[in-house]
Amino acid sequence: MVNTTLELSRRRFLSSSATTSLLAVASLSYPIDPILAKTIKGIQFGAAARASLIVSDPQYRDALLGYCSRLTPEIEFKWDRIEQEQGQFMFGEADQLANFARDHGIEIYGHTLLWHRSLPPWAYENLKVEREWSIVDRYIRQMVGRYDGIRYWDVVNEPIETGYRTDGLRPSIFLDVFGDEYVASALQAARSVSSSAKLLINEYGLEYDLAVEHDRRYHFLKLLERLKHSGVPLDGVGLQAHLDLRKGTVSPASIGSFLKEIANFGLFIFVTELDVTEASYFQTVDERDEQVAAEVSRYLDVVCDFPDIRGVTTWGLTDRYSWLGLSPEEVEAYIRLGYWRDGSSPGLNRGLPLDTDMRPKQFLRSLTSHGIGEKQ
What we know:
Layout: H1 4-14, E1 43-49, H2 51-56, H3 58-67, E2 70-73, H4 79-82, H5 92-103, E3 107-108, E4 110-115, H6 121-130, H7 134-146, E5 152-157, H8 173-178, H9 182-193, E6 198-203, H10 211-229, E7 236-239, E8 242-244, H11 252-264, E9 268-277, H12 285-303, E10 309-314, H13 328-336, H14 362-369, E11 372-373
């Protein structure tokens, strides 16, 4: 039986509006570097984006249009944004972003269906009491059904956390209520709505030669092995790639062996949230940008050799809207130690492709040098 409400909602999203979209633009007002923005054959490039910023900041909007052929909803697709009250679905911002992408020939990446940090409070309480999978299943079906043109979905986000269980699964309400089968159940729920969408598990902390990241890689591979051997519909792996210079430099050997195991499972990879946290804010801007770009290149040197990489997405496009950086309290602490007493400051973390004025940095050139095209 067809869910009439869901089908009507889906048709409203897919249908072309007779009027210009709220987020549509007639032309680019911000000049894009013609060399960097040229169409090339290579790996598709995208960035996480917010609908509210596209509306409020024309420079940001134009930079997205100039460089990206794929957008990831930074917050708009998360459960606690969509269904803050049980049964009251708020698709306004999610539809805005999806329609903006559709109107400009940009693909939307589905992020994310199930994440322990985006569960609305009512769902948490209901799951504790009712212990019914239908609560989760209904939400997954709503999202995949409404946005059924989306090719890639992060079905489960960050299921691994070391140091708690022998299987490495993260303690969460999903694990508490449904046991270790909840990951498989979520993938099966998404597949039941769409036979064509590619379904992924998305994870972080997989890049460095550290004990905790060694354990995370091990448990993540064991999870993939269990799912594949059980015939669960899993198509690919999302590698968040939040690089962090405070950890040293990425480990090509560790990443390479990890990716070889993923390939053996017949899975593709997708770099989903690439950015860089800086270790030092005291050097010149050029020196800082060089260190960030070098870390990106070290990572991509390995990852871009993978036989089936579907895309590279950064978690944001510009330092103007980065989630990374020093807090005001940290800046004050450094000032007490003698830094920036002249009234200057470290500025923002410089771990994204564009600076705060939307100018391309060495980070972006690291992408293009690895065949990652801004506009496909």
